[in-house]
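Issue: copy button drops trailing tokens. Both records pasted manually instead:
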Amino acid sequence: MIVRISTEGQYRLPDGDADRLNDLDNEAVAAVEAGEEERFHEIFEQLLELVRSDGTPLGEDELEESDVILPPPDLTFDEAGHQFTGDGLIPD
């Protein structure tokens, strides 16, 4: 699975992490829908950390289509309200 973190780059994430990534995405949607800003930022940081720690950065010369595109790390809660809705960034 190829995951792009906007403003950072792409990572090759082990397929085994797909379910955890989806779970965090769903938790982020729930936090946004509940208006829980602090909880959203905690979950979003976990989501980014999962990609950074388990993923392998792709080289600048590697061009791969991203399976998932995550917003930039400095995403505001207002901006999250437009992206973390419904099925979230990763449809079930």
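Record 2 (pasted manually too):
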Amino acid sequence: MPRVKRGPKRRANRHKTLEAASGFFLTKSKLYRSAQEAVEKAQRYGYVGRKRKKREFRGIWIVRIGAACKQHGFSYSRFMDGLKKAGIELNRKVLAEIAYNDATGFAALIEKAKAALPQAA
């Protein structure tokens, strides 16, 4: 079996890694081994960050909806329960957008949610 020295392929891989590390501090952008470690760590952070971003945005939407509900004297959980019982299927992203930009539309949703809930005795 012939011996393979991997010249062009190795150079291309190293160039790709150093290209990804451009802008990193000191040797992390100049030396291949340091750059490789830095790029791998950055990719791990990026992967985790993409998952965390979804979680954080859901939290932001819930806070916005809850704040808009409080302005109408209603709690977030009762509002969501009322919407579900009224058959209104809007996700939290859309509800937060309505709460932020369309106060009258959100007030109408609050009224529909209130009407769908059984009245406390």
